[in-house]
Write a structure and sequence with these properties.
Fe2OG dioxygenase domain-containing protein; single chain; about 350 residues; oxidoreductase; ferrous iron binding; binds 2-oxoglutaric acid; binds fe (ii) ion; dioxygenase
Length: about 350
């Protein structure tokens, strides 16, 4: 640990107090309206570490960025910026504040904890949903395909209190500590009580386009989305607006990403997936990835079944009503969508 004695530990930004060793903060990582102000703060980019008893808060090497090429399927759409930068952040037990409201916790679980959680989640999710199992809890269709949109991923959405207790107890405890840790590093990260889990299983190569978490089942407040990755590593792309340069951060097995407060409505995408040599996933899951997303979404309590299937896309010929349309009615669902994407 290097001492940060030469620099005070805290700085103020837009009225909030931050640890000063913010990682990955090239100016492009600040919301556009804040960049001019951020440029006046050279103290944002020191290379220094400091420890904290409950949670070590660190930074990347010096907030370095490298050009990143988005995959072709994420490029070339009208009104979208095709440029991206890769944010380098060092490994280690550290909270990396990429921007107020956007925090990565490296290796938030030990390898043993990852193996145990992956086994528990696979046991819960690796089943077929069909007439014989109407619970809706399963990654697979009867033909062996994945149940998500266009077979891209297995998907289970459920209230935490309805999960098998071994899964919910360990996840809720861990999630509370990750939020505490993120808040210790970032004063703008709101408090969070997880009400729901979205559990996804991707086969190797599984990706996801840019979207905002904006439906009622995503939670509609400022509480963070808390996302844990197990298995394959991914390049996670983030930006506030489609016209912004995307920032890409690599998430490895055991890493947690939180986006809340000023970053709660970030656009995000899984741009690439890579197999890892010694996966923590059970053998049957192959080189895939499990994604656990914990959300505060009390509005949908008791209505989880409306969100058992992924929201179909407008161009989907088999488009059914979305969960929000069923829960809130078409007008309210449309009004919220317009508000969130304006
Ligand atoms: O794969 C992931 O971890 C991201 C999932 C996601 O963003 C979502 O389902 O809304
Ligand atoms: Fe999302």
């Amino acid at each position: 640990m290097r001492s940060s004695l030469r620099h005070p530990s805290w700085f103020r930004f837009r009225g909030a107090r931050y640890r000063r060793n913010v990682a990955g903060c090239g100016l492009t990582t600040f919301p556009r309206q804040d960049r001019a102000f951020a440029a006046t703060l050279p103290c944002l980019f020191p290379a220094g570490f400091e420890s904290e008893p409950a949670c070590s808060v660190g930074s990347g090497p010096s907030g370095s960025e490298a050009p990143y090429t988005l995959p072709p399927w994420l490029r070339g759409r009208p009104g979208r910026n095709d440029r991206a930068v890769h944010l380098r952040a060092e490994d280690g037990p550290a909270a990396v504040v990429l921007e107020p409201g956007l925090v990565v916790l490296r290796q938030a679980l030990s390898r043993e904890e990852q193996v145990a959680l992956a086994a528990e989640a696979w046991d819960f999710g690796a089943r077929t949903v069909g007439p014989s199992d109407p619970s809706g809890h399963g990654f697979f269709e009867e033909d062996g395909g994945l149940r998500g949109p266009m077979g891209s991923r297995g998907r289970i959405f459920e209230a935490c209190c309805k999960l098998p207790s071994r899964l919910s107890e360990s996840l809720l405890k861990a999630s509370a500590s990750w939020v505490r840790c993120a808040r210790a590093a970032d004063a703008t990260m709101p408090q969070h009580e997880a009400s729901h889990l979205l559990l996804l299983y991707y086969r190797l190569g599984g990706t996801l386009g840019f979207h905002r978490d904006e439906q009622a089942n995503d939670g509609t407040g400022a509480e963070p989305v808390v996302n844990l990755s197990l298995g394959a590593e991914i390049d996670f792309a983030l930006r506030h607006e489609h016209s912004d340069v995307a920032r890409v951060v690599t998430l490895r097995s055991g890493d947690v990403l939180l986006f809340g407060g000023p970053c709660r409505r970030l656009l995000h995408a899984v741009a690439a997936t890579r197999a890892v040599p010694d996966t923590v996933l059970p053998a049957d899951a192959g080189d895939g990835r499990l994604s656990f997303t914990l959300r505060h979404a009390p509005e949908v309590t008791g209505h989880e079944y409306l969100y058992a299937d992924f929201r179909p896309q407008p161009e989907d010929p088999k488009r059914k009503l979305t969960g929000d349309e069923l829960l809130l009615g078409s007008d309210e669902a449309q009004r919220r969508l317009r508000k969130m994407s304006s």
